[in-house]
Specification:
Length: 305
């Protein structure tokens, strides 16, 4: 499918090349003093065992803030262009060190965050719409009006996901932190239990965006369709998602093996773009086949009658 529509990989390919070779917008000078101040108080407020954890946290935050690139926020979840470089944020390139620009104003950071988030959603809508049309059995053409409708629905879906994650994560993080202070084993058990709960709730929603692009349904209708589809194909859907995740994450380890200063990284970027686009395309094919099956089951009693 992707080989017949090779232009589809240009979205993740060009994005990763830009994140790799392009300029970096950093917030290290703005947030590092605050982070170090908070971490330095941990040994005094807690037991001495956290002293080593505090030292390790300082080093970790230094690495994260050094590599974090505000432009990588263009990689939006859940609907966005897949990116290999967004998670790595390399600061070295074959040309030498990347161009670094420090953002020292909180309002500028907020404006850049909103701008790149909206741009990421727009590009994600165009990317998913192109894949949806490429996997359709009928010929469909690009429509500005449909893209605007899709964009509104995806905005609603993104905000809904953000609110749910925020409301769910805050008490869970607090509980895990308290359990970890009592015992690291209890903290690990809580994390495992939380992971199972997340999988249980997220699994039926995995095809929620597909209905917006395939049938141009409202997001509420698309979510309902996704739940019914997964419920009817639960074992098969579970294996499909598990296989796709294992293939995606496993191959990412291969794509990331080349050093940032080597042009061989382009091979990894191309491979990631091809595989990620292929997996998303296969999900659209799976979704359409599932809809056809459900419709045939609905019409079957009427035909028998």
């Amino acid at each position: 499918m992707v080989a017949n529509h090779i232009y589809l990989i240009l979205f993740p390919l060009l994005l990763d090349v830009f994140l790799w070779l392009g300029p970096h917008l950093r917030i290290k000078n703005l947030f590092q003093p605050l982070v170090l101040s908070l971490i330095s108080d941990l040994p005094e407020l807690s037991n001495p065992e956290l002293a080593e954890m505090s030292k390790w946290s300082k080093e970790l935050w230094d690495i994260l803030l050094s590599h974090f690139n505000l432009i990588s926020l263009i990689r939006v979840f859940p609907i966005g262009i897949p990116s290999l470089m967004a998670g790595i944020s390399p600061i070295q390139t074959p040309y030498g060190s990347a161009s670094l620009f420090e953002i020292n104003n909180v309002f500028q950071v907020f404006f850049i965050w909103v701008a790149f988030t909206l741009a990421g959603i727009v590009l994600g809508c165009l990317y998913f719409d192109a894949i949806s049309r490429a996997t359709s059995n009928t010929t469909t053409h690009f429509s500005i009006n449909q893209i605007l409708d899709v964009f509104i629905q995806i905005i609603i879906f993104t905000i809904l996901c953000f609110v749910v994650i925020l409301l769910f994560s805050l008490p869970c993080l607090l509980l895990i932190t308290l359990l970890s202070l009592i015992s690291m084993t209890l903290g690990q058990i809580a994390v495992l239990f939380l992971f199972i709960i997340i999988i249980w709730f997220v699994m039926p929603l995995v095809f929620s965006p597909h209905g917006v692009f395939v049938s141009h349904d409202p997001i509420t209708t698309s979510i309902s369709t996704s739940i019914r589809l997964v419920r009817n194909f639960l074992p098969g859907t579970g294996m499909f998602i598990l296989t796709a995740l294992m293939l995606y994450q496993g191959l990412n380890l291969l794509w990331e093996t080349a050093p940032d200063t080597s042009w061989m990284t382009m091979v990894g970027i191309f491979g990631h773009a091809f595989i990620s686009t292929g997996l998303i395309a296969s999900s659209f094919v799976y979704y359409r086949k599932g809809l056809d099956w459900m419709e045939s089951k609905l019409h079957q009693p009427a035909i028998q009658a």
